[in-house]
Amino acid sequence: MSRITEVKVAPLYDSRAHLTVEATVTLDSGAHARAGAPSGASTGTHEVVAFPDGGVPAALAAFRDRARSALIGLDAAGLSSVDEALHRADGTPNFSRIGGNTATAISVATAMALGVESHRPLWKVLARSGVDGTSFPSIVGNCINGGRHAIGGPEIQEFIAFAEEKDPADSVRAAIRVHGVIGEALERRFPGQALGRGDEGGWVAGIGNVEALEILKDACAKVRDETHLAVHPGIDMAASEFFRGGQYRYRDRSLDEEGQIGFVSELVDRYGIRYLEDPLDEEAFEGFAAVTRAVGRRALVVGDDLYVTNVVRLERGITLRSSNAILIKVNQVGTLTDTLATVDLARRDGLATIASHRSGEVPEGWLAHVALGIGARGLKCGVLGGERVAKLNELLRLGRANGT
Ligand code: 2PG
Ligand code: MG
What we know:
The protein has about 400 residues and is an alpha/beta fold. It has helices at about 55-70, 80-90, 100-115, 120-125, 170-190, 210-225, 255-270, 285-295, 310-320, 330-335, 335-350, 365-375, 385-400; strands at about 5-15, 20-25, 30-35, 140-145, 160-165, 195, 205, 230-235, 245, 245-250, 255, 275, 300-305, 325-330, 350-355, 380. It is built from 13 helices and 16 strands. The structure holds 2-phosphoglyceric acid and magnesium ion. Magnesium ion (MG) binds near residues 236 and 278.
């Protein structure tokens, strides 16, 4: 028995200084843990609602009125009882009363408290079958920010260093170095001018998509030469953000779906892209399948807004063979139990999983445990900023603890 004796939910600022929430869960053994929930900017339409109308204050009030008493006294062992109680207390399909972020914070804090009680790290509490914690995720490190994460940058949201080394210390080192080399290239390109950094710590500069890709490709090649580490270009197009009226709208032209598929496939070949997230709109299951047929042997084709970590949407993607990988974000579905159901389905069907941060993050490391526990192929968490580095540092600790 691991009875819950107290649950507290409190406001917390994320890395954009927007309000989010953190939860503290205490068990009758005295074991307790605290976790904060992140927030996205380029959210998928089918995600659960982060906060009810009225924002964080309304979420806190709804938690007090609807959820707290339902949780206290509950046996948290196994976690699903708590996550089911959160769904029941909310009573909507998308957490629109208590907020998906409230649910996320409580779910993660409960799993952490169970770990504290049983002297297990969080990753072990979450570990899927066959996962022994010795196989580490690659690093998906955002180096140039665009789209909704930057002002005045390229339309493509993220230009990524995808570092695939066995030892997480090597992957982290390679991704960080690519970020640094890109900074040097931008300094040469814009001598004496101010450069910025975006919401996820990547560079922001007045360059277009193609120029950003050139810089990224060169930086990855330089770091490979220098270090002999496996690091290659990746992108998250977050294409739903510039898809309007059936067209992908770039500053200089518009493309229909077929045109976009051709354009994306060309980019993968020309720039050696090995990680390709959301190349099409969030409803384009069949278009995604065409992209996967075209480039899926050379690149991970990753569904983010397409799946929103939702098991029903993933089932559809599996039937249509829409992608070979799925992004996993706990607060897209609101609980760890829902997240793990999606992960288990992905694993059963051979899709790679990528555990991901949000653009508005909290300076905590629990995402690294999620990545390790689900046997993720990648940890997407950026490379710069305390809230991103917290996850990288936690992965390094796990690497040392588990003997790499
Ligand atoms: C994404 C994420 C994280 P956001 O699109 O993958 O990089 O962005 O959290 O804004 O949805
Ligand atoms: Mg994305």
